[in-house]
Amino acid sequence: MDEKIKNYVITSILLSALVLLPLFPVRGDIDQSIQYLKTKTPNPWVTMALSAAGEDSDADYLKIFVGASASDYEAAILALVAAGKDPKSFPNENFVQKLKSFYSGGQIGDPSLLNDDIFGLLALLAAGEPIGDEVVSSAKNFVIQNQNADGGWAFAILSGSDTNMTAMAIMALLESGVSKSNANISKAIQYLKDAQNSDGGFPYDPKSLFGTSSDASSDAWVLSALNKLGENLNDWKKDERGPAEHLSGLETSAGYFEYQKGNGEDAFSPITTSYALIALRGKYYPVSKISSSANPSVNFKIEGKTKTYCEGEAQAPDALELVKIAASDCSFTYNIKDTSFGPYLEQIGDDKASGTDGWLYAVNFILPSVGAADYKLKAGDYVLWHYGAFDWQPQSTSITLKTKVGGSSGSPGDNNPNQPEDEISLTVSIPGAGGSLDFGNILPGESRAKFVKVTNSGDVSLVIAGIVTGNDIFRGYLKINDLPWRDFGTNLSAGASETEKIGIQIPSSYTNPGEKEGLLIFWGTPTQ
């Protein structure tokens, strides 16, 4: 086969959306709970809850804070960031540095515990520490390595799984760049599915000898994890009741949430209520975070001669550092050689530069004129590392997608997600066709779909894949042929066409209105 045919052929679709919200996007009498928390002594959980509810939250009590453990500093950092304070200088102390002082032997805090590693991840990432930071990366690996066989996580090492730590571990790993389709996350979701009670709620431990009744804390933490995952809450209902309904049923007229029905108020009620308020507002952990300007979030794929080494999302300052971060996540080896022109990526796995073949990188399908170590990435970039001939040239065309999420129902014809609408023919080669897709109006909890025709107008068979960049609403919720876009793939022989369903479903918990834009890219790889 001619080496030049190994080039990728690409068609891209510009995505856009206007996200609005229904008038009452939350459940329960949240105002009553807010007033209840305002009467209580502030603590990190109350601070996070009030911030999640859009209220001013007090952090002055942390000016005299003295922590004795990693967990103490983790809660304080999460609260400070939620309150809009910098934990690296509040009021004149570096909470992040204090937390990192508990790092030893590849883990944070007590080596017999796992909860301080899970919350350590959340706290450090909330404070703006990059995913590639040594402590963050090590804690992430430690959490992954200590997942139980049933898919859950426990409070302590070598202990039985519980729903609370499993929910928090899911949020921590997602925050650290692990994708929803990752096997560890999939196993954890299944653990939660299996743990759910018939009343729609969740127990702390579904195997506990001391009782397996649903409780507010477990409901809330699992619900926050589902919010983070972008799950459709209707899929988590049993007899029309899910965790949100069960949790809402534990709210009292005084504004606090009972741990279990009939328990009444106790010293822990403000914290239980804080958990509930965060979850029912559609929020998750960390409630807020400080962006790391030096390490933007990018999408990437590392494509070898015969296999994909890694793909997903990561935070990296430059294209070469991205390889190092991906190597840690996907467990591949690499070799970077120092040359007179700067560092050079010589090898990944079995693919080593030789003759006219080597590793090249493209950002947004353009070959930069500088070395990978010198190319500073921006948020939303798509980075492709490719092993092949040095005359490789990625190319692309674009098609616009539009939608309006929320507000009133859409115009006629917009409300049937399975009804084919404007068909746009794409050619998976260069030149390709332009055009636009408009999803119409969408409310949280609803879905829409459009159809595009992908045509292989070349003379070799192609493996077609999809990539989504841009706003989180598209990266998180767009599907191709009812599959998460990361899982989409199809084979097209030369001259063949195929119609693909492009769908989006907005979670009922979605609470971030505004115009959104992204890019859907179809690309083809010649079959071997």
From TrEMBL:
Chain ranges of the Squalene cyclase C-terminal domain: 128-231
Residues covered by region (Disordered): 401-423
Domain of life: Bacteria
InterPro entries noted in UniProt: SQ_cyclase_C, Terpenoid_cyclase/PrenylTrfase, Transcobalamin-like_C
Family matches, as Pfam families: DUF4430 (PF14478), SQHop_cyclase_C (PF13243)
SUPFAM superfamilies per UniProt: Terpenoid cyclases/Protein prenyltransferases
Location of the Transcobalamin-like C-terminal domain: 338-388
Protein name: DUF4430 domain-containing protein
Organism: Candidatus Giovannonibacteria bacterium RIFCSPHIGHO2_02_43_16
Lineage, uppermost ranks: Bacteria, Candidatus Giovannoniibacteriota
